[in-house]
Design a protein that fits this description.
By secondary structure, this protein is α/β, with parallel strands linked by helices. The chain has helices at residues 20-23, 39-47, 100-103, 108-114, 133-145, 161-175, 191-202; strands at residues 4-11, 28-33, 64-70, 83-87, 118-126, 149-154, 180-182. The protein has a single domain (4-202), classed as P-loop containing nucleotide triphosphate hydrolases (Rossmann fold, 3-Layer(aba) Sandwich). The protein contains seven helices and seven strands. A seven-stranded mixed beta sheet has the order 1-3-4-2-5-6-7, sandwiched between helices. It binds guanosine-5'-triphosphate (GTP) and magnesium ion (MG). Necessary for normal cell division and for the maintenance of normal septation.
Length: 203
């Protein structure tokens, strides 16, 4: 899958989320997870571009960054995109609080609760660390609100096959989810499968 990204805007307020006039009501995929889990890197790997900002400083993404994804070239502003990607700020950066909502910007909750075109939430969990309580909280939120979500295990390239299988099993158990898709932004492992899942919601 190769879609061309166009950066739409960076929102720090509910009023700034891109309107239907900008997105043409195209289905949106949101990327969520702790700071440093690899959200922006995964987006770049999926797009084969450097559109999303990656930094070595955790907590860098403090806004929701929206990208419109188009097939082919042409006048991109005038046609409906295939998908919208939303790169969200990470949580779990400030060690002071264990709860997500306490440290997440106030516009995230309304985004998740009210964004009508939000078709799929990709929850990223790091396969290199033990299961985290705040990830469980987010996943529980999606179960309760019945928002479609998919859990992916990031940075799979850092582990042997055996270690990865163990990590995925532990994460599945702790977060009580049936499926966790291992991915790597470095080697592109798992990204084909992830594209297939996202295109299901795009249709
Ligand atoms: N080895 C390896 N490193 C990765 C992978 N994905 C991300 N990283 C590294 O992890 C760090 C954080 O990556 P980001 O993509 O900026 O993480 P983020 O979730 O967007 O972080 P915030 O925007 O701060 O919430 C960077 O140093 C990346 O190079 C991966 O698949 N494999
Ligand atoms: Mg980021």
């Amino acid at each position: 899958m190769r879609l061309n990204p166009v950066f739409l805007l960076s929102a720090t307020d509910v009023a700034h989320f891109p309107s239907e006039a900008k997105t043409y009501g195209a289905p949106e995929v949101a990327f969520l997870g702790r700071s440093n889990v690899g959200k922006s890197s995964l987006i770049n790997s999926l797009l084969g571009s450097q559109e999303a900002k990656v930094s070595s400083t955790p907590g860098r993404t403090r806004a929701i960054n929206f990208f419109a994804l188009h097939e082919g070239a042409g006048d991109k502003m005038k046609v409906r995109p295939t998908l919208i990607f939303a790169d969200l700020p990470g949580y779990g950066y400030a060690k002071i609080s264990k709860s997500i909502s306490a440290e997440w910007p106030s516009f995230i909750e309304p985004y998740l609760a009210e964004r009508e075109t939000l078709a799929l939430c990709i929850c990223l969990v790091d396969t290199n660390i033990p299961p985290q309580e705040n990830d469980t909280q987010l996943i529980t939120y999606f179960k309760q609100t019945q928002r479609p979500y998919l859990v992916v295990g990031t940075k799979s390239d850092r582990l042997s096959n055996n270690q990865l299988a163990k990590s995925i099993a532990a994460l599945r158990k702790a977060h009580e989810v049936e499926e966790i898709l291992p991915v790597s932004a470095k080697t592109d492992a798992g990204t084909k499968m992830l594209w297939a899942k996202m295109m299901e919601v795009a249709e």
